[in-house]
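Inverse folding, one chain.
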């Protein structure tokens, strides 16, 4: 016992590393599990219109389904970012709002390249936040709009899916060349 007492520090409190007690990790010590959240990246390529041009308040591609965005049915998480890429240029002044729903908003009509028509019966399904894609990334001929650090809380309720609708905002029109010119990428951090 005397030899063990001799190993104890003389004073308690903060000291130098040399004053610390030795710790020996057993040779059969299992690894300490360290986990990081599994970020989900969901890509949606909605069918869009090559003509006529999209104007303010038009829906881009109709209603989108973010399939399996949550890990489990009824799961949730945080929407971190939304990126919209375009194979054609996005004129300066074009911005896009993306609204989200935890239940399929079947009472509303979200027709591509037509004005937004949200039915009041679907308002309770809206999630508490809108992704406002206003940061334009010039990539040459293609371009992108992005919103980062959104922190929008989301729950999937009785499924593991969410629904989203993108709406043109800003002071310019968007002219697309093909029905697959637009892609949305959603970055989601599940619970």
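Residues assigned per position:
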């Amino acid at each position: 016992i005397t030899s063990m007492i001799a190993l104890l520090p003389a004073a308690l409190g903060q000291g130098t590393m040399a004053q610390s007690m030795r710790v020996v990790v057993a040779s059969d010590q299992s690894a300490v599990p360290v986990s990081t959240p599994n970020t989900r990246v969901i890509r949606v390529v909605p069918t869009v219109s090559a003509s006529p041009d999209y104007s303010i308040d038009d829906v881009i591609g109709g209603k989108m389904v973010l399939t399996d965005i949550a890990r489990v049915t009824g799961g949730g998480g945080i929407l971190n970012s939304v990126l919209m890429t375009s194979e054609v240029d996005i004129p300066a002044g074009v911005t896009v709002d993306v609204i989200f729903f935890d239940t399929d908003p079947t009472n509303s009509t979200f027709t591509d390249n037509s004005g937004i028509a949200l039915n009041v019966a679907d308002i309770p399904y809206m999630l508490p936040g809108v992704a406002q894609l206003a940061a334009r990334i010039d990539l040459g001929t293609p371009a992108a709009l992005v919103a980062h650090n959104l922190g929008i809380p989301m729950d999937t309720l009785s499924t593991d899916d969410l629904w989203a609708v993108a709406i043109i905002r800003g002071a310019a029109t968007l002219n697309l060349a093909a029905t697959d010119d637009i892609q949305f990428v959603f970055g989601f951090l599940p619970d």
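The longest strand covers residues 76-86. The chain has a mean pLDDT of 87.
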